[in-house]
Write a structure and sequence with these properties.
This protein is mainly alpha-helical. The chain contains four helices and three strands. Strands 2-1-3 form a three-stranded mixed beta sheet. Strand 1 and strand 2 form a beta hairpin. The chain is rod-shaped. The termini are far apart.
Length: 127
């Protein structure tokens, strides 16, 4: 009976000690997870920004109009349609781009800037 009581106390003490160690390890792991999460947060935000920019660039058009470079989005080109640019932006018809990915449009770039401004703002140019 004495041995059993003594063994029981040792086992209880060992169990309490083991429980304490497990709690300490759990707290340390939680702390490390929080630190890691906080370190990764800026990268998650940056990754989301990069994905948004990449998505926007996939919708970007590089146009060479009369020798002048223009950059705009498919959304802008599709506004106030149907017209030549909305059809081009729809990608329903093939268009050839040069090595720099510019689509050549044989028109006066001075007028094209005004047209592009109208498509962006919806207000006709005056004067």
């Amino acid at each position: 009976c004495f041995m059993s009581s003594s063994l029981e106390r040792v086992l209880v003490h060992f169990g309490d000690h083991l429980f304490s160690v497990v709690q300490s390890v759990s707290r340390a792991i939680e702390q490390r997870e929080k630190e890691l999460f906080n370190k990764q947060l800026p990268y998650r935000c940056t990754a989301a920004e990069v994905q948004a920019i990449n998505a926007q660039q996939r919708k970007c058009w590089y146009l060479d109009v009369g020798g002048t470079a223009f950059h705009t989005s498919s959304d802008v080109m599709g506004r106030h349609g149907p017209h030549f640019l909305s059809v081009l932006a729809s990608r329903e018809y093939a268009s050839e781009a040069d090595d720099g990915q510019y689509v050549f449009i044989d028109r006066d770039s001075r007028w094209f800037a005004i047209i592009l401004e109208y498509l962006r703002d919806g207000t006709p140019a005056t004067g």
